[in-house]
Amino acid sequence: MYNTQRERQMKFWTGFFQVGTLIIIFLTLIYIHLFLGQFLSPTIKVILTFWGVVYLFVFISELKAIKRVAIRAFALLNCFK
Predict the structure, then answer these.
(1) CA atoms within 13 A on the CB side of 48
(2) What does pTM read for this prediction?
């Protein structure tokens, strides 16, 4: 699998930040659409909705990666003991 503990840690943090970035982008799109949508033109609302759906599908496809990140997190917690 991975040769050293350092490689395992780097792989964990890379996956963690990738998943975190997707979540932050998706939540930002929801916030803009719901709370600032009344100030936006219909064209911009359509664009935001489109990208929200795209990011939703990307997030769903990354659920497997989220599961791997969670498993690695628990494994790394056991390594640090």
Answers:
(1) 20
(2) 0.51
